Amino acid sequence: MSPARLAPFPFSRPRRLRRAGWIRDLVRETRLRPEDLIWPIFVMDGVDAEEPIPSMPGVSRLTVDRCVEAARRAADLGIPCIALFPYTDASVKTPGAEEAWNPDNLVNTATRAIKRAVPGIGVLLDVALDPYNSDGHDGIVRDGVVVNDESLMALEKQALAQVEAGCDILGPSDMMDGRIGIIRRALEEHDYQDALIMSYAAKYASAFYGPFRDAVGASGALKGDKKTYQMDFGNTDEALREVALDLEEGADMVMVKPGMPYLDVCRRVKTEFQVPTFAYQVSGEYAMLAGAIGNDWLDGDKVILESLGAFRRAGCDGILTYFAPQAAELMEAAI
Ligand SMILES: NCc1[nH]cc(CCC(=O)O)c1CC(=O)O
């Protein structure tokens, strides 16, 4: 019904629907549940240890055994899926990023350990070369250029090693052209029909990824920026084209990234395609909120749930967020 057909004041009084908690609950249009969240976790080498990430207060890199504990905690909280990102030492980075398809690299090892110990939780892995590439880029660099088609061959090998390790959802985050089609074909050829692909379809070249690059140890390696493959923040029609291509190539779900500054893109994608649509509340968004919460400038419990609820209102089915366990605990406490 259009607002024009509402009775005029005083017969319409919108505040009637806001008078008390029970009526607000009854007419709420969107809801946030722990089941809407994916928790990104940083994996590092070692045993029974963790290392705080200075630009992400409250987030630490975890050794594989601690990742297994985190997966248990997620499952207990009703969080259906975790995403794993490796902190890779400079010594394993090469121009060809070969570590990306090492069956025993950190994320593959962690995936096997988690699927063994907590089989009911979903594991999502990034398909992109940046943690393994001495150039810090998501693709292979030749003469200063991130070359598309050669990168696809590397991404295909990486994706196959990841599903082989037991990964449930591949998250190609590299923004090379044609990557979804190449990966989907490879999965079919190797009998991995059930492997899900959540493509980072509309991924913008963003300053909000800064703390993540510290977390995975890529900041030092990266020369220049990622503007020749990640999107220009001035565009949204282009986001729809990227989503359309990824769906045509075989993506099951799509993602918009970053999140909160891009809610208009989330809404357009959901309205246009009606496919499972996710957003990534990225490291810089986390850092902004965690920094302000830590200084008591914002009320943490409230702002975490409001920021995540906004994604649901914008049409997102789910959100990748470093606040996942905290948010799930807050939701549990509210029941
Ligand atoms: N391809 C790597 C990747 N996968 C997820 C993020 C960012 C996540 C975050 O900032 O939380 C990035 C960084 C980048 O593209 O430079």
TrEMBL record:
Pathway: Porphyrin-containing compound metabolism; protoporphyrin-IX biosynthesis; coproporphyrinogen-III from 5-aminolevulinate: step 1/4
Catalytic function, reaction form: 2 5-aminolevulinate = porphobilinogen + 2 H2O + H(+)
Catalytic center residues: K203, K257
Enzyme class: lyase
Highest taxon in the source lineage: Bacteria
Entry keyword set: Heme biosynthesis, Lyase, Magnesium, Metal-binding, Porphyrin biosynthesis
GO molecular function: porphobilinogen synthase activity; zinc ion binding
EC number: 4.2.1.24
Residues where Mg(2+) binds: E242
SMART domains: ALAD
PROSITE patterns, alphabetized: D_ALA_DEHYDRATASE (PS00169)
Single biological process term from Gene Ontology: protoporphyrinogen IX biosynthetic process
Family: Belongs to the ALAD family.
Quaternary context: Homooctamer.
Name the UniProt record assigns to this protein: Delta-aminolevulinic acid dehydratase
Protein's organism: Albimonas donghaensis
